[in-house]
UniProtKB/TrEMBL annotation:
The lineage of its organism: Bacteria, Bacillati, Cyanobacteriota, Cyanophyceae, Nostocales. Pfam families: CHASE2, GGDEF, PAS_4. Residues 590-721 form the GGDEF domain. The chain crosses the membrane at residues 16-38, 335-352, 359-378. Keywords: Membrane, Transmembrane, Transmembrane helix. Residues 486-537 form the PAC domain. This is Diguanylate cyclase. The keyword Membrane applies.
Length: 721
């Protein structure tokens, strides 16, 4: 009992010392930004794990998608189309309309109509991009009142994700409001909510029940972040939406084409916020947010207009329903949190002697900490979970190393050094922590060529070249550091200049005082290494020869069966594929369609733009044909502007007709060739096995004849054999 009481104060001081040292290191690393990226990842995971939210979402997005772009036929969208859209929306009386498309220049036709629509839409908000550089500054929409314009600048973190939003920005002493804030204010006006200075801090904005605390450079996990403007850390909503994506959350979206064709219910527009923006992949207006990260697969980006919807939804739900905004601890509280986690790890490891049990408890505590911070996050608090977990585990690891060191001091190995070493016929050496020889057997001295008395208390650098001595020192140091035995292969040069290949097995031993000794046993493997080198050279030569032969074989086979310009199967491969397809269809009682395609107007492109442009056109047509077909179908180029398509396993000939129609539609789309727009069409002949014939040659001739018939009947059409 007396001994226990004597040791207890020392143990307490040790726990405090270790916990303070570990916590201090973690805090220092955190201030240097080592954990910033990992804390962002943890925050993203918390966002993804949060449940769906049921706050009412008054936002409808009108998406300028790829289908709408093809319907309109041009980009940017003409002013007449925008004016028509605004006129239709006004009839449904939305609270606010956000035009998240830059309109800083005229896009005829219909500019006068657009100006009139601007005048008739006081609840419209347009966008601009603020920048000190003129070449990066995007002006407001032409003709739109300056008070109806908000900036849409975003703040990217170093991992290219958006986690913060801007509310205000100042340029040349002029105050600007963000696009999202202007839209939210318009909507909140109908509920009687107006911007106020917060009572807790007059410099903070308050809307209804929400106070938007201004972001500081070291808030949360950020270290020295740029906090220009009025920024906030965004608490991205996760709104439930039964009509949205497969995840059943997000914002309701309709296409521009659907609105223009009056296919959208009025209830989706009336008294709501309507955002107009591009979602077409070809326009590349996409960003990443915390929800973009995927546990499996590539990151999922969102359109810029969806990002603005998140910002608007956050402001409105905070103002109307007290939805939490992101809050962070002050620096002293974060430091205290890190120390508490470190102290918990130290106490657990010291009190529980068994390593396995103690680390299981540490894992349990870590799980509790992670779960607790997630629950607190749901209430809007961003707690530094990564520094806490690292403090907990690092402190337990440090204590474990201390315990192991004390236990290793009890090992005794001095008898091995004096009694065993000279009984081994192989060369053996023993070094101290200063890498000096302290014990050598006779075999080692004979191998090196010096007497023992000369070598003792000397180091490798005094008898070996720098390269060999550095290699010996590296492996010696590895054993001293890891305290684990290792076996390595090295070069060894004796006194007479003879170089040998050796295998050295090193292990570490300690005496009762805790002094460490490195013991090495050497085997001469020179003959074995020479044989191995010969075998390696022969193997490498064989491998190189086989590889070259395989590359040549693959290249020749490819050239024999593919068109060098388009990469499509050539006439030879087409004939083989068709023969195989007919045999397979015969054995399975299925139909095969053969399409002969000849381009209309290709000669004109060649004559006017040149053969190089003609080649590029053929490559484009080949790509479009591939995109029209299934993976089981085959498209080939026979030569010139003639192509064939094999449609396998079709149930009826109408399927071939649909494919032909799709090909005609695709080929007639304009083709851009270095600033020149080329237009071609196609004449298609179709033969069906076994309807047209059972013979391969006959089917080909019939399809060819049908193609010429289509060409004579006006081109840009298809005909059956």
């Amino acid at each position: 009992m007396f001994r226990f009481k004597q040791k207890q104060p020392l143990l307490n001081r040790r726990e405090l010392l270790v916990s303070f040292v570990v916590a201090g290191c973690i805090v220092a690393l955190r201030l240097l930004g080592f954990f910033q990226l990992f804390e962002w990842i943890a925050l993203d995971i918390f966002f993804q794990l949060r449940p769906l939210e049921t706050y009412p979402q008054p936002i409808t997005i009108i998406a300028v998608d790829e289908i709408s772009l093809r319907t309109i036929g041009t980009w940017p969208v003409p002013d007449r189309t925008i004016a028509e859209l605004l006129t239709k929306l006004n009839k449904s009386h939305p609270h606010a309309i956000g035009l998240d498309i830059y309109r800083d220049f005229k896009v005829d036709p219909g500019h006068e109509q657009l100006l009139a629509a601007y005048q008739n839409t006081p609840n419209l908000v347009g966008i601009e991009k603020l920048s000190q550089k003129q070449d990066n500054h995007v002006l407001p929409p032409i003709g739109l009142n300056r008070s109806q314009v908000g900036f849409n600048n975003i703040v990217l973190d170093s991992d290219a994700k958006v986690r913060r939003s801007l509310l205000y920005w100042h340029t040349y002493k002029e105050k600007h409001e963000s696009f999202a804030l202007k839209i939210a204010k318009l909507y909140l006006q109908s509920t009687g909510i107006v911007p106020l200075a917060a009572q807790s801090n007059p410099e903070y904005l308050q809307l209804g029940k929400a106070v938007f605390s201004r972001f500081l450079p070291n808030d949360g996990s950020y270290v020295g972040a740029d906090n220009r403007g009025y920024q906030i850390i965004s608490n991205f909503p996760k709104p439930s939406c039964t009509t949205c994506s497969r995840d059943n959350w997000g914002f309701r979206k309709v296409s521009l084409r659907e609105v223009l064709n009056d296919k959208v219910p009025e209830s989706w527009i009336k008294n709501r916020i309507v955002l107009i923006g591009s979602t077409a992949p070809s326009l590349q207006d996409y960003v990443q947010i915390p929800y973009s990260s995927q546990f499996v697969g590539q990151a999922k980006t969102i359109a810029g207009v969806e990002l603005q919807a998140y910002f608007i939804s956050e402001i409105i739900s905070g103002a109307l329903y007290s939805r939490p905004l992101i809050k962070v601890w002050s620096d002293p509280i974060e430091y205290l949190w890190i120390w508490v986690c470190a102290y918990l790890g130290v106490v657990t490891r010291y009190q529980i002697k068994k390593t396995t049990i103690s680390f299981l408890i540490i894992i349990f505590f870590g799980s509790v900490l992670a779960g607790s911070t997630f629950v607190i996050f749901l209430d809007g608090w961003w707690i530094p979970i990564i520094p806490g977990l690292i403090s907990l585990s690092a402190s337990a690891f440090v204590v474990t190393c201390q315990i192991n060191y004390v236990q290793e001091e009890l090992k005794r190995s001095k008898e091995f050094l004096y009694q065993i070493i000279n009984t081994i016929p192989d060369p053996v050496f023993v070094k101290n922590k200063n890498y000096q020889w302290i014990v050598l057997n006779e075999a080692y001295c004979e191998f090196l060529g010096y007497p023992k008395e000369v070598l003792l208390e000397k180091s490798d650098y005094e008898y070996f070249s720098d390269s060999q001595a550095k290699a010996f020192r590296f492996h010696d140091d590895l054993v001293f550091r890891t305290q684990e035995p290792c076996e390595t292969e090295e070069q060894f040069t004796d006194k007479n200049g003879n170089t040998y290949s050796i295998a050295t097995k090193r292990s570490l031993h300690k005496d009762a005082a805790g002094n460490c000794y490195l013991v090495g046993v050497i085997r001469d493997i020179t003959k074995r290494k020479l044989i191995e080198e010969d075998l390696k050279r022969e193997k490498a030569e064989l491998f190189r020869s086989n590889k070259e032969l395989k590359i040549r074989e693959d290249r020749l086979r490819y050239l024999a069966y593919h068109d060098p310009l388009t990469g499509l199967p050539n006439r030879k491969l087409f004939a083989e594929q068709l023969e195989e397809s007919l045999l397979w269809a015969q054995s399975n009682s299925l139909m095969v369609g053969l399409l002969f395609i000849d381009l209309d107007g290709f000669k004109k492109v060649n004559d006017t733009l040149g053969h190089e442009m003609g080649d590029r056109l053929l490559i484009t047509v080949a790509s479009r044909l591939n995109n029209c077909l299934r993976g089981s179908d085959t498209v080939a180029r026979l030569g010139g502007d003639e192509f064939t398509v094999i449609l396998r396993a079709i149930p009826k000939k109408e399927v071939a007709a649909k494919v032909a129609e799709k090909i005609l539609l695709t080929i007639t789309e304009p083709i851009l060739l270095e600033g020149n727009v080329a237009r071609v069409s196609a004449s298609i002949g179709i033969s069906i096995y076994p309807v047209s014939s059972h013979d391969t040659e006959t089917i080909i001739k019939q399809a060819d004849a049908a193609m010429y018939r289509a060409k004579h009947m006006g081109k840009n059409r298809y005909e059956f054999a």
